[in-house]
Amino acid sequence: MNVARNKQPFDAGRAAYLTLNGLLLTFLLAPIAIVLVFALNPTPYISFPPVGVSLRWFEKFFRTPEFTNALWLSLWIAGCVLVLSIVIGGACALALARGNLPGRSFLTAFFMSPLMLPAILTGLALFQSYLLAGIGRPVWGLIMAHTLVSVPYVIRTTLAVLHNFDRRIEEAAAVLGASPTRVFFEVTLPLIRPGVFAGGVFAFIVSFDQFPVSLFLVVPKGETLPVVLFNYMKFDLDGAIAAASMVSILLALSVVLVLERLIGLKAYVKL
Amino acid sequence: MAIASRPSPIAWLLAPALLLFVLFFVLPFGVMALMSFYSGNPATNSNAFLTTRHYERFVFDSAGIYHDALWATLRIGLITTIVSLLIGYPLAHWMARMQSRLGHALVLMAVIAPMLTGIVVRTFAWMTILQDKGVINTLLVDWGIVSKPLPLMYNEFGTVVALVHIYVPFMVLTLTGVIGRIDERLEQAARSLGAGRLRAFVEVTLPLSLPGILAGSLLVFALSISAYVTPSLMGGTDVLTLPMLIAQQVGTSFNPNFAGALGVVLLLVSLLIVIAYNRILARLSGEQGLA
């Protein structure tokens, strides 16, 4: 087939197909590149074309306590979410894949449902529950809310890994005399580790970038970075926002590379 | 199939997740539904009574804004879904049929990278592109194509553009999985029997990918009707969606009970979509099992 394709001197249909897809990729990536341009452009307001390169907006971002406090809070929450969702999601995926549970597909759909139901409603429902319980809006409440919407990613990546590896490896270990506990710790756990970690990294990003779930659950002076950025953007669009965006884009990009190394991005394609 | 057997001890590992989901997901949604039938907060206000007035307020809609908001939400969701499908399909097809592993990995990264960038950041990116002094308008004015900036933002158009950018990766990922599972030889057979490339695609690949189209569309629709950040930043005063209305009720009107009622309406719409989506997904994985 490839040979036949190469014989034709110019394939207009294929050229159009590739051009179209090139344009679509540009549509996906250009906005992110443009943010970088504005983050480095020294003019006080967003303006195009850029006139130069400077780091003044990064300086402003890192010198404004409003931003840095929010950045640290977001990183701290995301770190907690990472640990919690690894433990809870990893365990849950193991139970789903190996627990012989009745109604497995229903349970899986149930644990994935926070991703499909409106996140703003998850925030609203938790806000009202905390209100009813009279506990205010504690940081741990926000962490649990983020964990809820992050756990599905860990479950998904771990299930993908569990799905791919040969169950006979575990059976072989058992046949050779390993106790179930030993099989679990020495065979199953090391095998699913990349899936669990990849999910954890994803959970970190989901929490770090989380907006709709946080909206009703943050307190004034205790807002996470996306909420601070959102409120700032309503009134002011300057390079500081671009710089802040750049910080989170760089974080995301490094995560993509880590994920690709850990388990390959393909695990995210399968639902 | 396997004979039904008893759950193994490993099943206990489900307990933490189950606890998390009951306490912070099922119960809160129950609370939200309950609060939507109360006049106030029954924990702090002993005069709070049961009422259906929040729902009456939505149904009778004397101010004429709630129904409009519902329609705007559904309309924006529908347009976003259709455009995402038109944009997502070629990309998904390209990715699914790509021979080179490196090329595949690179395109996949390009699709996933925007997903990993926060919604607030991506909306900001579109604001810098579409606003009056943004990239597009500056270029158009400088080149003399238009005399004054086009209204690309603070309306439904800008909202849809940014929403498509945010949700198209979900469409691509869903479709890629489905198209990848279609045997390429079917299309080749159609072509060797004399069908042109376009006809082979329209009559073989496209119908076979229909479940993926449906699943991806439902997913994007469910996500875009619940969007809050993008419509409130890109929509200006032109756009009012259900999630924006909910945030207003909590933030400025401080009427969480009415917000709850609006939430229940949005939840019901979403639940219908999620159930349909899961049906299709279950059927897809069933077919995969038989193949």
Automatic annotation (TrEMBL), chain A:
PANTHER family: INNER MEMBRANE ABC TRANSPORTER PERMEASE PROTEIN YDCV. GO terms for cellular component: plasma membrane. Residues 71-259 form the ABC transmembrane type-1 domain. The keyword Cell inner membrane applies. This is ABC transporter permease. PROSITE patterns: ABC_TM1. It is a multi-pass membrane protein. Belongs to the binding-protein-dependent transport system permease family. It comes from the Bacteria. Pfam families: BPD_transp_1. The chain crosses the membrane at residues 15-40, 70-97, 109-133, 139-162, 239-259. It is found in: Cell inner membrane; Cell membrane. GO terms for biological process: transmembrane transport. Keywords: Cell inner membrane, Cell membrane, Membrane, Transmembrane, Transmembrane helix, Transport.
Automatic annotation (TrEMBL), chain B:
GO terms for biological process: transmembrane transport. The keyword Transmembrane helix applies. One of its GO terms (cellular component) is plasma membrane. Coiled coil: none annotated. Pfam families: BPD_transp_1 (PF00528). Keywords: Cell membrane, Membrane, Transmembrane, Transmembrane helix, Transport. Residues 70-277 form the ABC transmembrane type-1 domain. Its main location: membrane. SUPFAM superfamilies: MetI-like. It is found in: Cell membrane. The chain crosses the membrane at residues 12-38, 69-92, 104-125, 157-179, 200-229, 258-277. It comes from the Bacteria. It is a multi-pass membrane protein. PROSITE patterns: ABC_TM1 (PS50928). Belongs to the binding-protein-dependent transport system permease family. CysTW subfamily. This is ABC transporter permease.
